Amino acid sequence: MSKAVESLENGLRQARIVYHGKNRLPIADTLAHLGAALRSDGKFKESLAYFQDAKEVTDDIFGPDYVHPNTSAILSNLALVCQELGDLKQAKEYGTKSVDVDRKLSKTIDGCPSVAFRLHTLSEICHAIGEQDEAVKRLEEAKAILQAASSKHALLVMILSELMIRYYLMGSMDKLVTTAENFPENYIDRLMEILEMLTNDDGSLMLRFTNYRNFQQLPALILGK
């Protein structure tokens, strides 16, 4: 047992005594912190139990899936743990609920990286299940959220990279080109890596970019015009 987990378990015992019959939100917070610590240690089954307990306490305080940042965070962590355990159906359910709560939060900023990250996680889950259209849809939503805030966050680059690969595999060249044109200029090296990787695929699509200089040239370079 790590020192962090041991300390949190001691804190949980104290919180149960101090907040018994009172506002139990600190108990839910401690349970969630324990779940996160155990997830970091790779103890996913134990982590799941603590996050489920945290959700139960939170639901008891506010009501099921109450629109609150704590609710969204717990649901998101439940999705991640279920994903690690291979329970993808349950992971998608938790992930979808987390995103739904985020959308309802009046203080949620459109460009908030945490919301985009949760959409990205949900996309990964959908992809693993085989729901490719849904996976791409969630990535596009995450991209739109970050772009609305003029974000140049590294998460945006990761999402754009994944969208390019997904569109390439789907044969959606127009969408691939549009996605590539959205790359922040300070991440041009990453764009070139993606293009080179696709060029070295099975040869069914030749991506020419040797003399690439600006985004306006990209459609012609990709399509070989």
From TrEMBL:
Stretch forming the signal peptide: none
Pfam families reported for this sequence: TPR_12 (PF13424)
UniProt xrefs under Gene3D superfamilies: Tetratricopeptide repeat domain
InterPro entries for the chain: TPR-like_helical_dom_sf, TPR_rpt
Protein name: Tetratricopeptide repeat
Lineage: Eukaryota, Metazoa, Cnidaria, Anthozoa, Octocorallia
